[in-house]
Amino acid sequence: MTDPVSDSFDVRVLAALLDGEYAALRTRVKQLLIENADLITDSTEWPKEVYRERVRDVVLEAAKTGLTGSGFPVEYGGLDDFGGNVAAFETMALGDLSVLVKFGVQFGLFGGAIHQLGTKRHHDAYLADIASARLLGAFAMTETGHGSNVQALGTTARYDSATQEFVINTPDEASRKEYIGNAACHGEAAAVFAQLIVDGENHGVHALFVPLRRKGKTLPGVRIEDCGPKLGLNGVDNGRIWFDHVRVPRENLLNRYADVSPEGAYSSSIENPDRRFFTMLGTLVQGRVCVGGGGIQATKVALTIATRYADARRQFGVPGKPEVLLLDYGQHQRRLLPLIARTYALHFGQERLARDFKEIFSDPDASERRRRALESRAAATKALGTWHATNAIQECREACGGAGYLAINRFAALKADTDVFTTFEGDNTILLQLVGKGRLTDLRDEFGSLDGVAVARFVGRQAIETLAEKTIARAVIERVRDAARGHDEAEPGGDLLDHDYQLAMLRTREERTTSSVARRLKGGMDAGGDPAEVFSRCQHHLLAAAAAHGERIVFEAFLTKVQAMPEGPERDVMSQVASLHALSEIERDRAWWLERGRLSTERAKSITRAVDMLCRDLRRVAVPLVDAFGVPDELLPELLP
Amino acid sequence: MTDPVSDSFDVRVLAALLDGEYAALRTRVKQLLIENADLITDSTEWPKEVYRERVRDVVLEAAKTGLTGSGFPVEYGGLDDFGGNVAAFETMALGDLSVLVKFGVQFGLFGGAIHQLGTKRHHDAYLADIASARLLGAFAMTETGHGSNVQALGTTARYDSATQEFVINTPDEASRKEYIGNAACHGEAAAVFAQLIVDGENHGVHALFVPLRRKGKTLPGVRIEDCGPKLGLNGVDNGRIWFDHVRVPRENLLNRYADVSPEGAYSSSIENPDRRFFTMLGTLVQGRVCVGGGGIQATKVALTIATRYADARRQFGVPGKPEVLLLDYGQHQRRLLPLIARTYALHFGQERLARDFKEIFSDPDASERRRRALESRAAATKALGTWHATNAIQECREACGGAGYLAINRFAALKADTDVFTTFEGDNTILLQLVGKGRLTDLRDEFGSLDGVAVARFVGRQAIETLAEKTIARAVIERVRDAARGHDEAEPGGDLLDHDYQLAMLRTREERTTSSVARRLKGGMDAGGDPAEVFSRCQHHLLAAAAAHGERIVFEAFLTKVQAMPEGPERDVMSQVASLHALSEIERDRAWWLERGRLSTERAKSITRAVDMLCRDLRRVAVPLVDAFGVPDELLPELLP
């Protein structure tokens, strides 16, 4: 079915391919991690206070070596290079993840908010200090009562024209700021998200620069409480914040998109409040881009450990002979190799996302359409990448048996620390919902809010036909019509290992699931259903459509990369890895194609056989494949005594 | 399709059904847990030493109140009631899981080994002290180099007839005892598993009583090292043990199945060394029975928290109205309700297992066949129950968002502590392999060892026809023949909610996967394949067959229970829960039936619709369903401020 994989491929070629354009920066970050490898080996035994101080110290050290400010403008110590930001962050994920998250809070979230939502006065005042970590800060968005639904935050910033100040207030317990990194100990200021109220009118959520501490002492009106021990990331000082009528100058409003005049006149370059809100939120997409990448990198660490272990650990076998290597068992190959393949796929999906992010954020004239597409790609990649991290790290832990349970072997921290990646920077379910809705209409402005009821209403109100005026929606409709006419029902042809076949299969699922949700929503509304109920019933399918979209764009990015490689053994092996990834995904969900007559039962079984075969073939290069991930030996445990 | 669930069912009826015959004992254990609830709320902040001492104290307290010795003979302070042992252990799993594991090590593993492998002299000397926790001990089986393959342990016990002593020795690093609970601090003795060598001849692995400490001081020749921080269960003092020619009296051999005379003559009531080894191991099945039950109970805690949270937490909705409860979202119902249903199923599967265990261990004349069947059921139930715990607790954590990440809300410990349940007391993959092989031949004696090569050889050597002489194997063959003749190919008829239909579906998969593996193995061997290679290629399918068997026996146990209930709203709701469980499992793996023509594409889609509908219907009783799990409020966090 395929040529055997050549053993002679050069790991360095793959490593260079994975490192991409920021290879030098990645090497510098790895050096920092190696110098601070004690965080990996010892931090579980440190009291929380010691751990937090060490984590802060590494962040300060990173700032000193200039690894932290790539994305900031040159005049504030940065490089005006958003891609470098993402690459540095991702590489940090090979080490202690509390450092990663503290780093992300400081330079990405806090710094990013000042940079993206503020204007020159804020940049001049703060960015250089943020890039150098002289000013540590927090990103105070989430509240106890509102995590996903940010538009409904309870904190208020009421303008007092008499003193030309905003009064920041926490009206109730549900509105306290929650899980805020850098808040419990080190943050001296925060970007605080609050309902902006001017002259009694609520203009929706805006961000303000609010000082929290001076010389380590909490400022009057600010109350901060430690969130207490967490499942992981205990080197990060998460806290809760209450504001009791805290006053900040009018100028502290981060006023890139909206401002309040001294006299109390509200103005904004974006009329529609929903559009304004989502535009502001959209500028913060970097967090999502980074977290997904971090999850993928952490997965590489776990897979490197588990694969090397499986290639050294022996158990059972023929009496009188050496026991059999774990990796020579078919089931063990089945457990690890598809995860390795998927990690490659997600790596290249993430690389594509980071490139888009860099291009669009470097281009002040980037269209709103491109920005929306970026946000959708970021949401899908983040959801797939972080769920993969949770699943793959768990599988790796189990594949190392008891050894996997000892903290020294890293799975303890990898599992615990990445666990929240599926939740923060956007709960994965909510993110996929966002992707799904974007797919349905690509016109988020028309029903900007994230809630499903609005989508159901929207789709119900407009006949499907009127949607057809819109580019993407039209394509959806055409597919619905084709399907109704019985077109496009046949299975794509081609050899199973033909990437065009694999992509066509993923694309078919993507298109059909999306049009099917549109029909369901419309059908439910036409039948007079309650919009909330209609949405609830379709939600599972909407999420499946979004995931199908994510799978397609990730695989496409992988293929683009493989196809650009020069011919040779490295491309051959990457092509096999791509096939394993795609066929594993098709195998997992093969019922979907079977049910729709897009896959014959015989071909479905042959996909299972192809996955078996690819796992066997790639077993011989499993270790080189994880070696190419480039996790420094200094950051890896010695699993065998 | 079905009547709506009545809201009026009595939670207490379901709670009583779940508690079963040991309700009073469970209540006593819960009282102990409530009194020690500080372990749940505070232990993450304790230094390891403090945590370990508190855990030991609770174990001592449990011993004082008589909760620990149910399974021991009455003359040593027990109740001669193996069922009580399991019930007490399971209920302990609602609290801190370090206490659970320490409890299990002391009374189940250490005590169980002395009880089951020792004879009257050992019982007289130790059992009363073990039941009362005056003598704390360890179970020293696993070694660094051998976890699953216990037959290949490296530790030796060489008989010295000159002094009538055994000399216990650790020949190399791979043979040090590893992950041994109670070893690092508290164990004063251990049941040590070692290769018994008499006069130069190795008689295989046997167990001996070996003192480790006196008054807290390690004895000469014994070296113990702390395993260091673990992913979870840090209240348990796991350690490594090396023996340097440690001498113990001849009488310390736990000699129920084999003995060595003063002169050095080895004798055993079981001639075949493999059979002897597996018989000895079989007496220790209690550990597996307990761990599976513990995993299921811990899952109940997680589901109770997540379901109550979802019924109180609101997010998004129609402007001007209260936001929507998480549990009113279709996706959230999809996430939680099938897990609740599966937990019910596994609970009753576990109850059936515990009953078999009690009956067989209370009957000295229980046949070897029944004992083997018990071991197979224990292996399958443990694997399914502990994997379910890992999956379900993870889903519950994510379903609680950021709140799920705070240690105070219990998911941190639930995740970390249960994580190793899939590994210890038998790695789940190895256990399913054991089940699969048992299914293939039911004649383990003929190729006793656990390794797959022997199985492949065995199946290859004997023509499939000769297997047909054996009861179970014959049934397999008949099915192969039927399949070849095209019989039995049709999908079972009946309404989707008909339990007979659901069971028939699971049974079809069980039977077909088993016969298919037999054919693959035979085909591979007939073609002259290398046995190791043949086995490796079939392993994935063997494990699928084993899991299919496990699913059937669990569901059957659930149905038996439901069908024995008196008519009424409680039975109606249990019947729906059973349907949700079965149809979710069929939906998950529906490709299997589709590929074999056992399910039409239309019916497959209707199964998905039925799962949707059951989730919606059962949403109204989701909270009562978890309330019936009976987790005391004192052990649950307050998730909403």
UniProtKB/TrEMBL annotation, chains A, B:
Residues 282-437 form the Acyl-CoA oxidase C-alpha1 domain. The keyword Oxidoreductase applies. Residues 138-246 form the Acyl-CoA oxidase/dehydrogenase middle domain. Residues 501-636 form the Acyl-CoA oxidase C-terminal domain. Its cofactor is FAD. This is acyl-CoA oxidase. Keywords: FAD, Fatty acid metabolism, Flavoprotein, Lipid metabolism, Oxidoreductase, Peroxisome. Its main location: other. One of its GO terms (biological process) is lipid homeostasis. It comes from Nocardioides baekrokdamisoli. Its EC number is 1.3.3.6. It is an enzyme of class 1 (oxidoreductase). It is found in: Peroxisome. Residues 45-132 form the Acyl-CoA dehydrogenase/oxidase N-terminal domain. Belongs to the acyl-CoA oxidase family. GO terms for molecular function: acyl-CoA oxidase activity; FAD binding; fatty acid binding.
